[in-house]
Design a protein that fits this description.
By secondary structure, the chain is mostly helical. It is 65% helix and 5% strand. The protein has twelve helices and two strands; from the N terminus they run ααααααααβααααβ.
């Protein structure tokens, strides 16, 4: 068995058989100092578990009582841990009635719950099993506790491939209609000039003895390459802006999730968890 669990069990046995509890203040030197109240259920449970390991059962009761009465712990698993720590500590401190109440609430939350005999003394386990027997009719009727459900919401994160779409599609998908119209229009005009110049230059022909025809051919070739250059320039600007917009949207989604994860636990529990999901405007999911 683990050394720490064995030491805790031996101390609990000695405390319950002697009718008193050796407080941790002589070892830790902290019982005479003011303790700051925990701000979250996670912090409260961490403090209570540490105090339980050091046999400071008064602190366990002091920390958890305000979180359990009235119930302020939203996570079912943490509530079960809090009920167990509080019930065992109350029993060791001689408050068997309060311990029975905590054990009853714990069993109503989890009818199959078992206490660890390597950590909890036999007298406490015996009381716990007595409470189980008394609640047996109710426990048989009680359905098993539902699994904890975490509500999520989707935060749109554009896929990087979106920035490469031509004709202003990326800007339109990223809610930039003015840029979509301008850059998309320039690409359409540039591509149209390129096609027209190519077709007309092909019709005129490149080998002309007539100087006027040759000049006309050169003009259409110039139109062709001007159109191609305009298309390439507009498309390049579209890719650059699209990349900037995609990165800005991605950082906003990451900041939203970071703000959710750093929020206080009670406030976070009232909000759905953001889950970034990649997307592309034409409907292909990533």
């Amino acid at each position: 068995m683990p050394i720490r669990a064995f030491s805790v069990c031996v101390s609990l046995l000695a405390a319950t058989s002697a009718g008193g509890v050796p407080h941790a203040s002589a070892q830790t030197g902290t019982s005479t100092q003011a303790r700051s109240a925990p701000n979250t259920e996670v912090e409260a449970l961490a403090i209570a578990r540490a105090a339980f390991e050091y046999r400071d059962f008064d602190q366990v009761i002091e920390v958890l009582d305000s979180w359990v009465h009235p119930p302020r712990i939203l996570d079912p698993e943490r509530m079960r841990s809090a009920r167990q720590l509080l019930g065992v500590s109350l029993h060791v401190e001689g408050n068997e009635r309060g311990a029975r109440e905590e054990f009853a609430q714990l069993l109503l939350l989890d009818p199959g719950h078992q206490l660890d005999p390597f950590v909890v003394p036999p007298r406490v386990i015996a009381t716990f099993e007595e409470v189980r027997q008394q609640l047996a009719p109710r426990l048989e009727e009680s359905p098993p506790p539902p699994p904890a459900r975490v509500e999520t919401r989707t935060v749109e994160v554009p896929h990087p491939a979106l920035m490469w779409l031509p004709f202003g599609i990326s800007q339109a998908a990223l809610d930039e209609p003015a840029s979509a119209l301008a850059l998309g229009g320039l690409q359409v005009v540039g591509l149209a000039l390129h096609v027209v110049g190519f077709v007309m230059a092909s019709q005129v022909g490149g080998e002309n003895s007539d100087p006027a025809a040759q000049a006309q051919f050169n003009d259409w070739v110039a139109v062709q390459y001007v159109g191609l250059g305009g298309f390439v320039a507009a498309y390049g600007a579209s890719v650059v802006q699209g990349g900037f917009l995609v990165e800005r949207r991605r950082r906003a989604a990451e900041a939203e999730r970071a703000a959710y994860e750093s929020a206080p636990e009670l406030a976070r529990a009232a909000l759905p968890r953001p889950e970034p999901a990649g997307w592309i405007h034409v409907g292909v999911s990533f």
